[in-house]
Backbone:
């Protein structure tokens, strides 16, 4: 199994505490659906600073999942709560480094 980073872009924050609870419930349901394939539920990303040449990614959060292929990792985003809030998900394979 390979690891894949789900980078979250955009999306709308909850407008009320009640909406926040509903969104958190959707995230918990997605975590349950993904089950053991979820390596790290992740977190929102905050302040950032680019060191060296380049630009910031603009990612708003991340999760890490395990899957047998990129296509399977992408399929894990079906019904993802971040997509329901108008955001996008970039799925990136974390390439192993032989040591």
Residues:
């Amino acid at each position: 199994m390979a690891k894949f980073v789900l980078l979250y872009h955009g999306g709308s924050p909850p407008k009320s505490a009640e909406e926040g609870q509903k969104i958190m419930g959707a995230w918990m349901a997605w975590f349950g659906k993904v089950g053991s394939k979820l390596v790290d539920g992740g977190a929102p990303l905050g302040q950032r600073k680019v060191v060296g040449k380049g630009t910031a990614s603009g990612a708003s959060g991340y999760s890490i999942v395990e899957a047998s292929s990129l296509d399977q990792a992408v399929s894990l985003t079906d019904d993802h709560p971040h997509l329901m809030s108008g955001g996008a998900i970039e799925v990136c394979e974390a390439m192993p480094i032989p040591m």
Q: What stands out?
A: The chain has three helices and four strands. The longest helix spans residues 17-34. The mean pLDDT is 94.
